Amino acid sequence: MRSFGVSAALLGGVFGLAALPAAAQQTKVTNQGITPTEIVLGTHQDLSGPIKSWGVPVTNGMKMAVDEINAAGGINGRKLKLIVEDVGYDPKRAVLATQKLVEKDKIFAMLAPLGSPTVLAAQDILLEGGIPQLFPVTSAEFTYKMDPKNPQDRLKFNNVPPYTESVRAGARHLMQEKGSKKPCVIYQDDEFGKNVLDGFNQAVADAKLTAASVTSYKRGASDFSSQVAKMKSDGCDLVVLGTIVRETVGVIAEGRKIGFAPIYFGSTAANVVEVPALGKEVTEGFYAVGAMEIPYRDTSTGKAKEWAEAYYKLYNMEPNTQSALGYNDVMTFAHYARLAGKDLTGAKFLAAMESGDVFQDIFNSPPVKFSPTEHLSATVYLLQQIKDGRWIVLKRDLKN
């Protein structure tokens, strides 16, 4: 009965392709990286740069999943081979690494590449080469939006909450709940930050308010004194942070130094255990939107608990959102690759991805499902807050 369900789901994807516009049916998709015994995957991460607190655990989680899948016999008899490139959150290095992965290593798919500017810089290399770009660790909308006139856009899939929509939903909720009159934003001056800015602007419009202060900083900055002083002078009562880890703590700490204590709210990029670990009491009360509940070892249950303990034993590191995300991305790929069948091809894999078949992870996250017209699976978000050094879920059904 199970095999019939899988076949039906895959046929649904195939019939869905027939219903697509003619241009979409011309999508070029690779068959490279598939042998009778192996599927080659690539990823580019930051293992040595400013957001290695994301790149290292994401990579650990991915490797853990690959080892688990291979130990169980692989995917329809094929073992996974994961090739990791460290690009240090540098777009130029991401381009070079992607060219290597595509042309030399002959990857079948790019899985969970990290960072908005780095993913954006290298994305066209993948699409033009017919390489699927799967589940980038960035919520920027260019990672899932499809242009009907560009059939190669069909190779893009994402499963994390988009920055714009999730920030809009969370910021709007807090503006209304807290009675904000002077909302403000500080954002990293790149693709990531601009997506957060868009979400902020939409939330301000929803709340029928006017932004009291809009300021930015260059990627890699460590001094936020002028920006924070401006926000204080402008009377900001709620500040949306288009920041990642170190910058999140830096902005809030600078505010505390000068007696500026508005409500702070961040995107999914700041919803990680490193923020309270680094900021300690400085970040108490900080809000952020997230994709999943933080998998703390001592509070997780069931399979998530088993995974958390295994991760800690393997890496001598506490599990976190990033490591769970990396693990999930490999498991999601495996789910749809299995669905595509033993005679795996790029076309059959795309059909499986778009079949509407649901993948459910072990962390009780919202289910993953894609269709021929929807390549983003994350539309429900969690509002979380740091209390006593830990992220606590306040609202599970936050929607745009």
Automatic annotation (TrEMBL):
Entries under CDD domains matching the protein: PBP1_ABC_ligand_binding-like
Taxon lineage: Bacteria, Pseudomonadati, Pseudomonadota, Alphaproteobacteria, Hyphomicrobiales
Keyword Transport belongs to the record: yes
Name by which UniProt lists this protein: ABC transporter substrate-binding protein
Superkingdom of origin organism: Bacteria
Provenance organism: Reyranella aquatilis
Pfam families xrefs: Peripla_BP_6
Annotated ranges, domain Leucine-binding protein: 39-389
The entry's keywords: Amino-acid transport, Signal, Transport
Family: Belongs to the leucine-binding protein family.
Signal peptide span: 1-24
PANTHER family: BLR6548 PROTEIN
